[in-house]
Design goal:
Length: about 60
C-alpha cells in the first residue's frame, strides 16, 4: 500500500481520511452533506444534500412530502 505524504493530499482526500479513520467509520461518513450553488448575482446558496445520511433538526420536525 502506497501512503501519500499528507502535504501532497488534496482537501477532499484529507477530509475523506479524517472522516473514515474512526474504528466504526464507513465510506458513507465521508459522503458530502451539503451542496452549494451560486446565482448570477453572486449569492451562494448552501443546502443539505438529498443524499446526506445525517440531517439537521429533529426527525419528527420534518413535514411530510
Amino acid at each position: 500500500m502506497i501512503v501519500k505524504d499528507p502535504a501532497d493530499k488534496s482537501f477532499d482526500e484529507k477530509r475523506h481520511d479524517q472522516l473514515t479513520t474512526a474504528p466504526k467509520a464507513d465510506e458513507g461518513d465521508a459522503a458530502p452533506r451539503i451542496t452549494t450553488s451560486e446565482s448570477d448575482d453572486g449569492v451562494t446558496r448552501i443546502d443539505i444534500a438529498d443524499t446526506a445520511a445525517v440531517r439537521p433538526g429533529k426527525p419528527d420536525d420534518r413535514t411530510a412530502e
